[in-house]
Amino acid sequence: MAVYDTLGATYAQTRRPDPRIAAQIHAALADATDVVNVGAGTGSYEPPQTVLAVEPSQVMITQRPAGAARAVRAVAERLPLRDDAADAAMALLTVHHWADLSAGIRELRRVARRRIVILTWDQNVFRERFWLVRDYLPEAAAFDDTRCIPVDRLIDLLGGGRQEPVRIPHDCVDGFGAAYWRRPHAYLDPQVRAGISMLAQTGDDTLAPGLSRLADDLRTGRWHTRHAELLTLDTVDVGYRLLVTDQ
Question: Out of 2, 5, 196, 207, which residue is the most buried by the measure of CB atoms under 10 Å away?
Answer without folding.
Answer: 196
